[in-house]
Amino acid sequence: MRSTMNRRQFAIGSAAIMSGGLVGGLVGSRLAQGDPLRFDRHLPIPPLIDAAKQGNAVKLKVSSGRHAFLKGKPTQAYGYSGPVLGPAIRMRRGDEVQMTVENALGFDTTVHWHGLLVPGDVDGGPHQVIKSGGTWRPKLKIEQPASTAWFHPNLHHDTARQIYMGLTGLIIVDDGSDADLGLPRTYGVDDVPIIIQDRSFDSDGSLLYDRRPDPQTIQYGNRGSTIIVNGVVGPVAKVRAGVVRLRILNAANAQNFDLRFSDRREFRVIASDAGFLSTPVPMRQLRISPAERFEILVDFAERQPVMLETGPDPLMGIFGAVSPDGSTDFVSIMRFEPTVAEGTIRDFPARLVEPDAAALEKAVRRRQFVLDSGICGGKRPTETGMLPGLCINGKSHDLDRMDAETELGTLEVWEIVSFGMAHPFHVHGASFRISSLAGAPPPAHLAGWKDVVLVEDRAELLVAFNHRATPAHPFMYHCHILEHQDAGMMGQYVCV
Ligand SMILES: [Cu+2]
To answer: Within a domain: residue 347?
Structure first.
């Protein structure tokens, strides 16, 4: 069986890495130096830009700045209109938002609107480079249901490092349905963004990222020893004593997080990447892979402080299942303290929004995408040609090669196959329903519209193509382990 073989192949790779003594995909509640975390730093809330309140004209300046990920240790980071991360931009369905993106980084970048369903020429993929010192002015017509999206660089061969250094911002698409449903929606108060990332730091607090990652880092993705939430280590969020909505984004380069609360309380998943689920899904533990988003409702009415924890990456075998201190425990990543202020929302809704139907029998064709490593055809992913290739259907990404042509207004079945390890697969410019995961129907919280799917074995997707992308500005599909993407595990398609 495929999955058995995957695990065996994987275990061999893991043993090789561990014997090589390389630092890998390990999360921990302690800093590398061994200091226990105090969870006494207020959770930073990215500033909210409500596009409609400023005439649907939004400016972002991408630049380098100084930020203290570790308390008292400011260091270089990259951010959008700030030293690290970026604002949360609220956009309303039906509006057209004029973005102005100024690149003051000192080198090229792009800004990809991950989860926005917009045409290829404004999608911000590797064909829309914003040159150093340049400005990009895309118009974004918002025509999709309420959802949590985000924005980040997608520059050919330099996506992983730029995101690692801090380039991540949120987009909140608002269609009024959360007001109709009576959901918490006061940003930063009972509607709280939670951006989770793992990082490795030097003793001076600076970010460790090798511009030329070694083969093992490329193979398994960059994994840090410390977890940050909204850009800081060990934060505390003071929340209302009531039902609170968390918009969780995994913006790690490679790590899957396995989230739960320290008291194992139940929470409700209300939305995934591309919008609301039909009903809230009660869960006590939630896996989130790179680039995925989940919105959850948590009841803090009992006023008990609680920790948010993550387990070792369940899909990294030996490699991810052991912390630097040798433990396999869950570790605390942040603290919630319900305050004296009562929450205004006391109940979970019974129903949410019925997602747009998607009928498998309407699919016009079927394609298969095999995600693998090895000797890839096409251009070499590195100048030396000595590093491992990461490829889709045996080919490394090539900006000059078109891999697929789709037709506007159609549905297709895409079968994604992962070899060797689990890959989070993302499609630009389209959303999909998961028809099956390893041959079984998806669990309820993965049954809505999405744009990322973690493929451990194989997944069958029903993809809806409703946005135009021409050969000059194609859409990407790729693995969202950023080192894999940079090393060639990406393809591109047109939709005409
Ligand atoms: Cu991958």
So the answer is: no
CA 73 to centroid of ligand 1, rounded, Å: 33
Residues 128 and 98 in one domain: yes
Cα(50) to ligand 1 centroid in Å equals 34
Distance 457 CA to ligand 1 centre (A): 12
Integer angstrom CA distances of residue 474 from 9, 157, 363, 488, 496: 34, 17, 21, 16, 10
Q: What is the pLDDT of residues 347-375, one digit of tens each?
A: 888 899 988 877 778 899 999 999 988 76
Identify the domain boundary among 177, 193, 212.
177
Q: Do 413 and 390 meet the contact criterion of CB atoms below 8 Å apart?
A: no
Residue predicted with more confidence, 5 or 355: 355
**Closest among 89, 185, 194, 101 to 142, alpha carbons compared:** 89
- Residue 369 Cα to ligand 1 midpoint, Å, equals 12
CA distance 103 to 109: 7
Is 196 in the same domain as 269?
yes
pLDDT at 21: 29
pLDDT of residue 105: 98
Helices (H), 152-213: 159-164, 177-181
End-to-end, the C-alpha distance of the chain in Å comes to 39
User: In the chain, how many domains are there?
Assistant: 3
The answer to whether residues 394 and 476 belong to one domain is yes
CA distance 315 to 6: 11
Shared-domain flag, residues 145 and 78? yes
Identify the pLDDT of residue 343. 73
* Residues 209 and 322 grouped into a single domain: yes
Which of 155, 177, 199 terminates a domain? The answer is: 177
Residue 168, token pair as written in the block: 């991540």
Residue 220 Cα to ligand 1 midpoint, Å, equals 8
Does the pLDDT of residue 267 top 90, yes or no?
Answer: yes
- 150 and 261 share a domain? no
pTM reported for the whole predicted model: 0.91
Secondary structure (3-state) at 20:
coil
Query: Of residues 214 and 440, which shows the higher confidence score?
Result: 440
Distance 223 CA to ligand 1 centre (A): 13
Whether 367 is in a domain gets the answer: yes
Residue 323 has pLDDT above 70, yes or no: no
In this structure, are 113 and 159 located in the same domain? yes
Range of the domain at 408: 360-495
Most confident of the ranges 32-41, 166-175, 217-226: 166-175
Q: Is the pLDDT of residue 19 over 50?
A: no
418 CA distance to ligand 1 centroid (A)? 8
Does 350 fall in a domain? no
| Inter-residue contact 64 to 77 (CB < 8 Å) | yes
Which domain CATH number covers 284?
2.60.40.420
CA nearest to 174, candidates 230, 246, 247, 94: 94
